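Hello K.,

You asked for the raw outputs rather than the summary table, so here they are, unedited. I folded two proteins back to back in the same session to keep the settings identical. This is the first:
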Amino acid sequence: MTKRSILFVTDELFLPLPPKNASGWLYYTIAETYKKRGWEVYCLSFFRDRQLARSPAVNAAYGGLFRDFLLLPGWNRGGHPLGAIGQVWREAERALTGNVLSSHPFLLTNNVGAARKIAETLGKWQVDVIYLAKPQSVQLLGRVLHELSGGRRPLVVMSAHDDFVSRAIAYRGTYQRLFDSLSLSEILRDHANAWVRHRLERIDVVRSRRAETTIFDACHLVRVESADEFTAYSRMNSSTAKLSHKPFSYVAPIQRHLEVPSEAFDAGFIGSNDVMNLDAVLYLRDVILPIIRKAAPEFRMLLAGGISSKVRPIVAGVGNVTVWESLDDVSSFYRAIRVAAVPLRAGTGVSIKVLEALSFGRPIVSTPVGVRGLPRKLLANTIVTSDPNEFAQALLRERLVADLPQDGLAVDG
C-alpha cells in the first residue's frame, strides 16, 4: 500500500510543547495521530514573531514531528511595516463593514511571485491531503492554493471547529456581561483594548457569512466537530465544499493516578484569560456557588491558568475561592482538585480543559458548551447539564464520590 502524506496548515506556531493555547494542543494531537498511523506528515505554520520562528527550539520541535516544514510570516508579515499597515487595514475593514472574517492585501502569500515559490515547495512534497486548521489558515495562504491548482491537486480539507461568525456574536454578548459586572476603573485597568473595540465593533452577519462561503469554496471538504454547528451550517450552507460532521475523538492516554492531597480543593476551573472563561467564573459566582453554599458552606473552589491575571476583581470577597497566580505544571492543578468544573456559557470549538481532565482521569461536570465537538464515547463519565441546580448538585455528589475508596466501591440499589 502506498504511504499517504498530509500537510497541516496552521495560523500560528504551536511548537515546542506545551502550546500556548487550546488550538495548539489540537494541532499537535491531530498531527501526532496521523504520524502514528503511518502517514508522512508535513507542516506549514504562519508566525507573527520572526525571532521566535528562527529559534533553535521551535525548529527542532517542528523537525522532530514533521518530515519537512515551512514557517511563513502571517498577518503582520513577521513584524514588517507592510504587515503593520495590513493589520490596521484588517481592523478598519472589520469595523467599517462588519465582516468578522476580514483579511488584508499585504500578506506575503498575496504576492504572485512569493505565492508561486511557496506552491513549488509544497508541490515537491507531493502530499495527498492539505489539512487547514481553521478559516484563517485559508486566508493566510492567499494565492498559494490557486497556484497549486495547475499541478497534482491534493484533497483540501478544512476544520471548522470554530464558527467565527457565531463566535463574534457570542463574544459581544459575553463582553457586555463582563463589563456590566466591573467598575470603570477595573475595565480600564484590565480590559481597556477590549472595551474600546467592543464600543466600536459592528457585526454584519450576511456579509460575514458571504466571506465564510468564499473561504469554504477554496476547499473540497469542511469538517465540523460540533453537532449543533454542523446542523446550522447544513441549513444555511451555499458553499461548493462538502460538509462533514467529525467530532474530535483524540484524547491523551490516562496518566498515572493522581493522588488527591489532604488539603484538596473540592472543584477547580482552569483556563486562559479569554472572556468566555471570565464569563464562566461570573456564572459560577452568581448562580452555581450560591446553590452549593446552602448545602456545603465550606466547599472550596480553585481557579488557575492564565485566567488568574484578570479574574481577581470578579471573585473579590467570595469566600473559599482560591486563585493560583502561577501554574508551572498543569498536573499540579489536577492533583489539587477532586472535580473539574467547566461552567462555560458561550464559546466555540473544542475545550482543551475537558481533554486535559479526561487525560488526568478526573471527574468532570460541564455545561453542553464545554463539551461541544466531542463524541459521546469520550464523555461516558462526564456529567453534562445546562441546569445550574443540576450542575451544583453534581459537583457536590462528585466531591463525595472522590473521597470514597475506589477499590470495592459498592452503590446501593
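The second followed immediately with the same parameters:
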Amino acid sequence: MWKLALAICSALTLTGCVSNAPATVEAECRLFTDPGFAVRGAEPRDQRWISRTQEIGIRSCGWDRPG
C-alpha cells in the first residue's frame, strides 16, 4: 500500500513540473476520478488512508459520497 501512496505523491509532484502554469485542484480532479463505489481497506490503517483520500475528493472535486 505504501508503494501506491509513494507513486501517487511522485505523480503529483512531477505533474507540477510539466508546465509553467500553477498547479490547481482541477488538474488533480482530472487525474483522480471517483471510483463510484465504497472502497474498503484490508486493514484499519488502509481504511483510514482511503477514507481521507475519498473525503478530499468529495470536498475538493465534488465526488458523490458512497452509500
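Residues 7 and 40 are 20 Å apart (CA to CA).

Happy to rerun anything if the numbers look odd on your end.

Regards,
P.
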